[in-house]
Structure prediction request, 401 residues.
Amino acid sequence: MNANNGKRMLWVDHMYRIRDDQDQQAFAELFGHFAPRVKGFLIKSGADGSLAEECAQEVLATCWHKAHMFDPARASVATWIFTIARNRKIDVLRKQRRPEPEDLGWGPEENPDQADVMALQQESEQLGRAIAELPANQRELIEKAYFGDLSHSEIAEQTGLPLGTIKSRIRLALERLRHAMK
Amino acid sequence: MMEHSIKHHLTDDILIGYATGTLPEAFNLMVAAHLSLCDTCRAQAESFDAVGGEILDLAPSNDIVLEPGSFAATMALIAGGPVDEIQVPRVSGSVLPGPLQDYVGGDLADVQWRGIGMGVKQAILPTSRDASARLLFIPAGAAMPDHGHKGIEMTMVLQGAFQDEDDYFARGDVEIADSDMHHTPVADIHEDCICLAVSDAPLEFQGLLPKIVQRFARI
Prediction:
């Protein structure tokens, strides 16, 4: 485990502390890291400063309230927060509902297999490293697609990001869970 | 419902749009309905979410300043209870996946069908106006009127199957058509076909009768 993956596992641990103990210290650290980033995301998406501030607070409050929904075998904490922020953006800036796919019929397991959690968090770290190492123009393109409200037709073929591993990891988790349901 | 193995999937373009939150509501509805049936695309969509997470994590934050008292204000929000109570739809096990049930306001029996000629019926779903979503009912063996497209149209089978010049589409399969395409889908003879169709432009029908139908039916 390298330092970055250690950081990811630390955020996972923070989420557990928030979920199990309503730990304000853990939440304060999570807030310190993610609230400014969420605010920046919303500003780049077209919100003015005060709206972005308000939404960032709401997004982080949602992290607290929905801590029991976070599944570290399926997503990194950053990914989970990104999805909450993105949904808030659609709701507030575009004034639209965002339909979600069916829930798979179960919440996250109380204590998912630690090996699955480690593997997913590690792969997300690899993905992060791959993004950080992209040539500047490609990275900019991805940032614009995710942060700005731009079209995105070029990304799919341009980036060559190692999505395969994380995708197969998620698919494996889905299959296992579907199997467990039978 | 995983009874049939889906062969026609959503494109990465569309899935990226779903992850970034840039699609019109009707397209998001198509994606949500398809992901409810397709683990392959669900996994792909979640990996595009993962890219978003990494971008968020990597973003420099030193130029972004929170308001003074931001943390205290957030703790006050938390003390006030959950803001939104949006429920993720549960597995429906029905012809209509959960997200479509939400838009219909019930199940298949509650759909407000309107006949648009030749036994074909449709029900327009309430989405934002930048694109449209509707359910289509095509009697077994019947043909849809030939229509060209402006923009992008996606059609997903929910019940039965249809065939066009190129391919066969069954439950969960999505046909994606663009402006170059003129086609004549025919419903499989074994069962009435129910589809979800979304479009970011009005369809243009060829021939007089469908044109008149189009005027009244708001296709």
Notes: Residues 12-79 of chain B form a domain with the Arc Repressor Mutant, subunit A fold (CATH 1.10.10.1320).
